[in-house]
Amino acid sequence: MAIIELQQLSKSYWVYQKREGVRASLRSLFRRDYRAVHAVRGIDLTVEQGEFVAFLGPNGAGKTTTLKLLSGVLTPTAGQARVMQHVPWKRENAYRRRFALVMGQKNQLWWDLPAQESFRLHQHIYRIDRAQFRQTLDELTVLLGVTKLLQQPVRELSLGERMKMELIAALLHSPEVLFLDEPTIGLDVVAQHNIQRFLKYYQQKRRITILLTSHYMKDVSALCKRVVIIADGRIHYDGSLSGIVDRFSGHKIVTLQLAEGQDPTHLDRFGSVVEVEPPKARLRVERRRVPAVMAALLNAYAVEDVAVEDPPLEEVIAEVFLQADDAAAAAATAALPAGPR
Amino acid sequence: MYRGDFALGTLMRFLPIVTQIFLWWAIFDTIGGAEPGNAAVAGYSFHNVVAYYLLSMVSRAFSSMPGLASGIALQIRNGEVKKYLVQPVDLLGFLLLTRVAHKLAYYSVAALPFALVFFLCQRFFVGPWPDGLQWTCFVLALLLSFLLGFFLEACIGLLGFWFLEVSSLLFVYMLFNFFLSGHMFPLDMVPQPWHAIVDLLPLKYLAYYPAAVLLGKVPRDHLVGGLLSQCVWVVVFIVLARVMFRRGVRRYAGYGG
User: Fold this and answer.
1) Which one of A207, A248, A274, B58 has the fewest beta carbons within 10 angstroms of its own beta carbon?
2) The domain boundary residue, chosen from A224, A245, A266
3) Is residue B250 classed as helix, strand or coil in its secondary structure?
């Protein structure tokens, strides 16, 4: 039985457009211009219990909107969703006790109070029994190494420490499903790594289901076996991280080390040149032409060393995003009414 | 943690009253002496006026909700209201409990300076000591004024779902509140036909009414009726706040937080 099921989920809303200048401001007092934003356009997705899924996508792709729909903050324009057999936007307490949403820096903690007090409040909001609460809190604080910081006002914590506290607050009621919106945004490498390690451990131990959005490929590669690429409100890819390269990149990167005295010019006969730094050169070669190009290269030059690699994941994903953007722009142009306006 | 703020805030509560008392002292001085029984404005002698201000201060201690409306509107604007959609907790119930806790904590400490001021000013309380019925109605009116103040301001804050910025609206409300609740002067001094209108509004329960009950300005056979109509207002604003919250959340969820 799937724990999360989305069918043709869509969300559009209208945003107010403000033009520049005093005249436009006056005009907007009487007539307002609105523009429709189609944040999510028909997403189908099924997630099984215990999966750790990453949403990748450029800013404004619809990742956060999807998480908001799943946590009941937004009502969709069309489509259906079930999370643990609940419809999220009905906001039943029975559902709300079983999941948690962590949104980057939006804190659920009380700014002026020590985190401990916010946790106590959560204990009562979620009706966690006292012994259970103590045990969970001890476990989480030890795992995240923040036991000594519980008595300190939240505003005096560092960004990384605060994020850890946010995670603790979200996990106190032992949610079965966790939505994480950019949990490591703005953190330094060490803090990122700590959070990753914690999430990995916790997810494996408790077998909870986690949906995560992030811009850091490190987060994704460390944590998630399954990746969903969302761009322009649609799903462009759903599969393993390594599968992205196979699917979207028709190229390989060939790195050559030429023998001394060889002139690395005219390499562009073989593929597009990425960089030349004699005696080294890097080429982008269409995948199906790689064997032929290799033979020709070895023929034409005295080569000391050679490597054929997949292009870096970030690059491939950036390319996917760009393609999605172009497609969206083309669709938007096509949708414009014909004739002078 | 905020000891300084507490001490200063409590002190400042009494300051406006002192200036108002001096103002009225000057008024009564010009129209015929500030001694009891001499001159009267709308049935209030100078001593009555001072007693009224002290008691209306007590009403306002219950009914005033500093930062409630603006706080709700701010939470809507910066998206913090999401917390109440995601977590199994009700915004209005949560804020109400927070207010109760705040008032209890604040006034359990501030009771001391309040008591001191009343002790020092006891000579201004002329006339017969209020009887049991008056005391009961006074206490009930105070409790109801707390609820009325809370839900009235909550409604204004919830307008934030539609307007995002409610501060100017809040300013207008505060202005009306200042004059029509009896904060500025006893409402018996409002001339007709305005008095009839003010009497119909719920604002009078926020400051004037409890004080008037204890000072014997409300006829005995009107005491229960007055409380009942205060109850009705409380219910009206509870229902209104509930409806506004439900609609507001629907709008918020529809338009994207």
Assistant:
1) A207
2) A245
3) helix
Q: Tell me the residue type at A307.
A: A
Tokens of A215: 């811009």
Measure the CA–CA gap between A280 and B179, rounded to whole angstroms. Answer: 84
Q: How many domains does chain A have?
A: 2
| Mean pLDDT of all residues in B200-227 | 89
Q: What is the CATH number of the domain that holds A67?
A: 3.40.50.300
The ipTM value here is 0.78
Q: Is A271 helix (H, G, I), strand (E, B) or coil?
A: coil
Contact list in B for residue A96 (CB cut-off 8 A) is 86-88
- Does residue A341 have a pLDDT over 50? no
For the beta carbon of residue A23, count every other beta carbon within 10 angstroms.
9
Mutant choice from A34, A75, A118, A181 vs B, greatest count of B C-beta within 10 A: A75
Quick one: closest CA in B to A127, which residue?
Answer: B88
> Under an 8 Å CB criterion, which residues of A touch B?
11, 13-14, 37, 39, 65, 68, 71-75, 89, 91, 93, 96-97, 100-101, 103, 106, 108, 112, 125-126
Q: Is the pLDDT of residue B31 over 80?
A: no
Residue A327 located in a structural domain: no
Determine contact, residues B61/B106, Cβ cutoff 8 Å.
no
For residue A65, what are the domain limits?
2-245
Contact yes or no for B1 and A112 at CB 8 A: yes
